[in-house]
Amino acid sequence: MSCDKCQSIKKVIKVPRDLKEAILLAKLKIEDGTLKYLGAGAYGDPFKRIASGQGWSDFVNNYFSCSSCYQVFNLHAETYHGSGGKLEAVEEIQGELSNDVYPT
User: CB burial class (10 A; 0-12, 13-18, 19+) of residue 35?
Assistant: First the structure.
């Protein structure tokens, strides 16, 4: 269950601009200490790469957690076919995470 600090962290991704906004939102929430980066999921690029504006591959799949309540968030999008995605709270991490890091 999300807390007051993280309950507003969500974004529906339908077009590339939405994905850019979701990446920026996650980046800002990491920088202000609300979120902690956990790693990239299956087929996902390291968040450091996409947050620095180096673009993204066919799949975006990154996980974060709230620094207060530990709610897990997933930024995911399928960009190749343009089917979109979301930045959303999730019940659990799907699969294994890479060991990449994002500086805080």
Answer: buried
